[in-house]
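Students often ask why we bother encoding 3D structure as a string. The short answer is that it lets us treat folding as translation between two languages. Here is a chain of 113 residues written in the first language.
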Amino acid sequence: MPKEIITGPQLVALKNQVVKGFNESHWRELGALTDTYDLIENQPRLFRSLRWGDHDYDGIALKTIKEVIDNNPANLQIINNYVAKTCPESGLSVSSEDREGPRIVFRKCPNNC
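And here it is in the second language, the structure alphabet:
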């Protein structure tokens, strides 16, 4: 299986989508889907920061996503698919610059239609 590569800007963009759209259940579902449930459950700061709206939630989310991908590079595609389904404003940015604001979202048809 070829190793998937994610650039720093792509990782940060993915983290931003997760931070905007995830709750505790989403993190646990992602853990189940990627076979990293224990890794995610063993991140008590992740859930505490999320619950309390702490300033370090973004950084902890970034670290956790990176660990899930490092655990198995194939998890990147699983994460991307899950985020696309779960986070309403997620999608592939086709712009040369990633900016805040409205975006056009392209999604694959789930049944290859």
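Translate back mentally: The first helix runs from residue 8 to 21. Keep this in mind for the problem set.
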